[in-house]
Write a structure and sequence with these properties.
The chain is an alpha+beta fold and 395 residues long. The protein folds into four domains: 5-114, 2-Layer Sandwich (N Utilization Substance Protein A, Chain:P, domain 4), CATH 3.30.1480.10; 121-181, OB fold (Dihydrolipoamide Acetyltransferase, E2P) (Beta Barrel), CATH 2.40.50.140; 184-259, GMP Synthetase, Chain A, domain 3 (2-Layer Sandwich); 261-339, GMP Synthetase, Chain A, domain 3 (2-Layer Sandwich), CATH 3.30.300. It contains twelve helices and 14 strands. The protein has helices at residues 5-15, 19-37, 87-115, 185-195, 197-200, 230-235, 240-248, 263-270, 297-301, 306-315, 324-352, 380-394, and strands at 44-50, 57-66, 73-80, 121-129, 134-137, 142-145, 161-172, 175-181, 204-212, 216-223, 253-258, 278-282, 287-292, 318-323. Strands 4-5-6-8-7 form a five-stranded mixed β-barrel. A three-stranded antiparallel sheet has the order 1-2-3. The chain has a three-stranded mixed sheet with strand order 9-10-11, with helices on both faces. A hairpin with a 4-residue loop joins strand 12 and strand 13 (287-292).
Length: 395
């Protein structure tokens, strides 16, 4: 009995699997078919060998001794016992094992193909959508897009072709599970790589991406060639390149700004399209105080704070936006508070200061108390008054 190797190689080319994997699967199927045909018990095993050149099949029967757990065994005896005909039941078993092995080989091949593509984008066709996930047909396999990875309010109709970002490849009993996303910031980066040759060539780099899926995104780009404008390269002639990315994202707005090492300038650029007057870095480089003209305040903050949030994510700083009037009012209030504090400090110092000695001229007059008279005598002043009173009486 032999296997037609030419037919086997046709299957290998058609399925796109390795010939060695298919041969091993067939050998396992033949061994299983032999045991099924001979009604072997637990103490009998078998192994089959297929000659890769001729296709000849050789089956070896084995008497084995099981270990205590029954999970492993020791071969006690082995001999060749190649049957002339496997029979209908054994042939059906062989067929089932072969088909199962082919499916496993294809799954392993698909997993190996996509496991190295995490962070890449794929193009798929929408096959099914429900509240759990959306299924994309990638050709050889399918991809799952959970609700958390779907753009809010974006409808996925059957047969729609769209691009998605591979976030994870899992191995499961049903084969590889490819999880894709339409909300990941990496999708923006990959789409620009497809549309901008300068990015693909490494002349222009995307340094940072901030995104609110379905609404607005900001990307910071830098050029490694002084003769290439990074923003202009990404925008394209009359906005053609950025428009292609926006169309793929169903109209999501994209701001392209120039990245720079100067943090103050980078923060000012990140708040585009608003015009910034001054940026002050505070809190050991963790916060950026941004001062804008009064008429630019609402534009800098954006609708519901969107522009400020995206700028903060893009720069990695806490962004505090204030108008010139607010800064001026704050400085005036601070100055008043400082003046009041100084006045209070001076008043407190006057109250706490020690009394100083006054000059003799300014000192109030003091009267020394009369000296006490000796015992039995009247005071001198009292005696004088008596004498004067007697003289007045005689006169």
């Amino acid at each position: 009995m032999k296997i037609p190797m030419d037919s086997l190689r046709d299957v290998v080319r058609e399925r796109g699997i390795a010939e060695e994997a298919l041969v091993e699967a067939m050998e396992r199927g033949l061994a299983s078919a032999y045991l099924r045909m001979t009604n072997a018990d637990d103490t009998r095993r078998a192994r089959a060998i297929i000659d890769p050149e001729t296709g000849d099949i050789t089956v070896f029967a084995q008497d084995v001794e099981l270990d205590d757990d029954g999970d492993d065994y020791t071969v006690l005896k082995e001999w060749e016992d190649t049957p002339g005909d496997f029979g209908r039941i054994a042939a059906q078993t062989f067929k089932q094992v072969i088909l199962q092995s082919l499916r496993e080989a294809e799954r392993d091949q698909t997993f190996g193909e996509y496991s190295g593509r995490e962070g890449d984008i794929v193009t798929g066709i929408v096959q099914q959508q429900d509240h759990r996930y959306t299924i994309l047909d990638l050709g050889k396999t399918e991809a799952l897009m959970p609700p958390a990875e779907q753009i809010p309010h974006e409808r996925y109709e059957h047969g729609m072709r769209l691009k998605a970002y591979i976030v994870e490849v899992r191995k499961s009993a049903r084969g590889p599970q490819i999880i894709v996303s339409r909300t990941h910031p990496g999708l923006i980066k990959r789409l620009f790589e497809l549309e901008v040759p300068e990015i693909l060539d490494g002349v222009v780099e995307i340094r940072a991406v901030a995104r609110e899926p379905g609404h607005r995104s900001k990307i910071a780009v830098v050029s490694l060639d002084r003769n290439v404008d990074p923003v202009g390269a990404c925008v394209g002639s009359k906005g053609s390149r950025v428009r292609m990315v926006m169309n793929e994202l169903r109209g999501e707005k994209i701001d392209i700004i120039k990245w720079t090492e100067a943090v103050e300038e980078f923060v000012a650029n990140a708040l585009s399209p608003a015009k910034v007057k001054e940026v002050r870095i505070q809190d050991a480089g963790q916060t950026a105080l941004v001062i804008v003209p009064d008429y630019q305040l609402s534009l800098a903050i954006g609708k519901e704070g969107q522009n400020a949030r995206l700028a903060a994510r893009l720069t990695g700083l806490r962004v505090d936006i204030k108008s010139e009037s607010q800064i001026r009012a704050g400085e005036e209030a601070a100055a008043r508070s400082a003046a009041q504090a100084d006045a209070a400090t001076e008043g407190s110092a006057d109250e706490d200061a020690p009394e100083t000695a006054e000059s003799p001229e300014d000192a109030p007059e003091t009267t020394e108390p009369p000296e006490a008279a000796p015992a039995g005598q009247e005071p001198a002043a009292a005696a004088d008054e008596v004498v004067v009173a007697e003289e007045e009486a005689k006169s």
